[in-house]
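hi!! sorry for the late reply, been swamped w classes. u asked for the two structures so here they r. pasted raw, havent cleaned anything up. first the sequence of the first protein and right below it the tokens
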Amino acid sequence: MFTFRGVDFLDMDSMLSDQEKLVRQTVREFVEREVIPHIEHWNREGQFPRHLIEPMAALGLFGANLADYGCAGMSNVEYGLILQELERGDSGLRSFVSVESSLVMYPIREYGSEEQKEKWLPALQQGRAVGCFGLTEPDFGSNPSAMRTRATREGDHFVLNGEKAWITNGTMADIALIWARADDGIRGFLVERGTPGFSARDIKGKMSLRASVTSFLSLQDARLPASAMLPGARGLKAPLACLTQARYGIGWGAIGAAMACYNDALEYAKVRKQFNDKPIASHQLVQERFADMITEISKAQLLALHVGRLKDRGSADPAQISMLKRNNVKMALDVARSARDILGANGVADEYPVFRHMCNLESVFTYEGTHNIHTLILGERVTGIPAYGS
């Protein structure tokens, strides 16, 4: 039976519309019913729940904040609430929806030809196709401008050579958006599964995001028609704009992970007794932890909602989204660590979700721009002086 009622110290619900609350509740119940009972098994086995793609598509979760081509046309706040609830289940599930929506559907919608949009957006929205985003390389993560993947023009075709690393959904993908250096700058190419010279293999041995598919991509003389290039994407600004979309969703998703850790630690502390048969929730040091956790979660909720409202007005700045991602992921990781401490030895057992969330958040802390990169983005914005590479 559905029991999670959310974490809402500052009456956030009073700032949400009925429609926003309905979207959140629908996904919350889906996660409680379809994810929570099984996620520890999937995490233990390193298994992504592919059977959930179809029901998530039926709920309109893919490309939810995009319009046309079958997309739901939801607001950015509604989309954020979707990702918050998904990450309460698991970061891997939220990552899947983030990649499908912000890193594949968004660039096709924004930069693609009409033919590309009509072919891929309905299929991705309906879950009939899975996409991945190939930007990061083995030697270039935080510095994508130094990418080595090349696209060489040969008549009416391009020949791609290079490698991409740490790619979510890589071996599952029917379509890979590959960013490569061409004669006229960095361009994006839609590479279909089965293209000769294109291959993917999973990264094994992960201790984080185990219920997510993470892959290496290889392109060895992969020959593509010129029509595979996104005509509107030129230069590094295009993939960075995609990352901004994904970072926005991560800022919301991290709240969900923090909620899960806080809620479980609170329930545990109320029943775990120590010293004179009193629950540890009555101890001053434990209450200090909860006071810090609920304060930081509440601040993160306000930040996410405000940036979401700005985004819905079309006035959100990438640096503001960097603040959202940087603050909220750090907050969630700190909450997870505090919750793990409250649970004691039980905090490392997968009877509870805390250690899984903590491990997942270590990856979220790093991807879509590391914590330090977002620090430099904010530093440049407030000082006017870039410090990259210093």
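now the second protein. again sequence first, tokens right under
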Amino acid sequence: MSQEKKKQFSLTLLMRVLLGVLVVVAIGIFANSVMRYNELLEQQRELEAQLADYQEMKEELQEILNSEDDYEKIVKIAKEQLGLYFPDEEIFYNDRNE
């Protein structure tokens, strides 16, 4: 009978250890999932902000396209907002940090 109790005790101990390991692994997986979820939420916020900026830019450009403004104003907006230039235009950049 004492041998059965030893087997039962070691089996119970083994089950407790396995259950403990399972709990630790489950907590680790849960923590990893929560961190990934938070990263994805932050990325979603950033992308939504970019989308709002692009929509505003699109509306401004659509207004310009639909208006009958003079040529100079259209060229100025294209250069400032879109970074567009004429093919024969020379452009100089200043990369010095002040």
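hope this helps!! also noticed smth abt the second:
Residues 2-82 form one domain.
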